[in-house]
């Protein structure tokens, strides 16, 4: 009996890519780590301060408030976009020209640049020239995202749902199309209801796709910056100031590079930790089944 010998020479073809990616990622990261333990006065003057900036970040109440707003926003949009994306995918046609047309229409919001999305909703929400603002005024709702924190928060959430639900829908649509037809044939033979088909066939087969969707949407929502910055500028007050905006204000607005570097590292570790918790929890739930 011959022993199969694995040929791993193909790895040499992708090795340059790994080196370039590692090089471009490690150098900025090491720069941030260096800044996080330095008190920087100018380009040539800095003093080692150890963990002082990390202590300052952990005790800063403004950053605590931004972190709470960030978690609230991320979990809100996940609770909306994941079920909504699944529902849209289930309603999309699977054959013919209508399927292609539907895919194109659903994908349009994903093609719009982030700063343009903020500008669109900035105009869309104005009561004098925007359709949404005019509609809210016509039905008697006192809506003003520029001065009311609740309206500003709701508009940012609605904007993100409009922009990113298509991503979840397209991921779920591809997962649904990958389910073999024999499962549906067996369900028809057993006269299974539409809910039973979804509960016992489609949803379990979508688990891996939903893991990707949840992780992608959480990471992206946790790093949101451009859209709310263009729409509300973080206001009114600080009601829509998320972690990324607080970081930019500290690094560029106040030029506190040391505390900003420490904050960015804490920010990075929070994202890694929450994503790991998400992934571990979902995989353990899958194993229990």
From TrEMBL:
SUPFAM superfamilies per record: MetI-like
Major location, coarse class?
membrane
Q: Does the keyword Transmembrane apply?
A: yes
The question of whether Transport is a record keyword is answered with yes
| Topological type in the membrane | Multi-pass membrane protein
Please state the span of the N-terminal signal peptide per the UniProt entry: none
User: What domain of life?
Assistant: Bacteria
Listed A to Z, the keywords are: Membrane, Transmembrane, Transmembrane helix, Transport
Q: What is this protein called?
A: Sugar ABC transporter permease
């Amino acid at each position: 009996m011959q022993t199969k010998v694995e040929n791993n020479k193909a790895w040499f073809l992708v090795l340059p890519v790994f080196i370039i990616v590692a090089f471009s990622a490690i150098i900025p990261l090491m720069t941030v780590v260096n800044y996080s333990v330095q008190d920087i006065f100018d380009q040539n003057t800095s003093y080692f301060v150890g963990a002082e900036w990390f202590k300052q970040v952990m005790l800063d109440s403004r950053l605590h408030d931004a972190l709470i707003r960030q978690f609230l926003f991320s979990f809100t949009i996940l609770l909306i976009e994941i079920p909504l994306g699944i529902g849209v995918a289930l309603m999309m046609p699977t054959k013919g020209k209508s399927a292609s047309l539907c895919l194109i229409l659903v994908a349009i919001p994903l093609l719009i640049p982030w700063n343009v999305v903020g500008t669109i909703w900035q105009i869309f929400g104005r009561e004098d020239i925007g359709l949404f603002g005019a509609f809210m005024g016509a039905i008697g709702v006192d809506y003003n995202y520029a001065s009311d924190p609740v309206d500003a928060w709701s508009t940012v959430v609605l904007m993100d749902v409009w922009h990113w639900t298509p991503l979840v829908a397209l991921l779920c649509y591809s997962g649904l199309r990958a389910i073999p037809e024999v499962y549906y044939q067996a369900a028809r033979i057993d006269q299974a209801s539409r809910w039973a088909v979804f509960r016992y066939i489609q949803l379990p087969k979508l688990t891996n796709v939903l893991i990707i969707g949840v992780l992608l949407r959480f990471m992206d929502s946790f790093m949101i910056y451009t859209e709310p910055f263009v729409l509300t500028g973080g206001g009114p007050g600080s009601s829509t100031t998320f972690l990324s905006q607080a970081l930019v204000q500290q690094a560029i607005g106040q030029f506190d590079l040391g505390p900003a570097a420490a904050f960015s590292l804490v920010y990075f570790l929070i994202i890694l930790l929450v994503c790991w918790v998400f992934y571990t929890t979902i995989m353990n739930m899958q194993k229990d089944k």
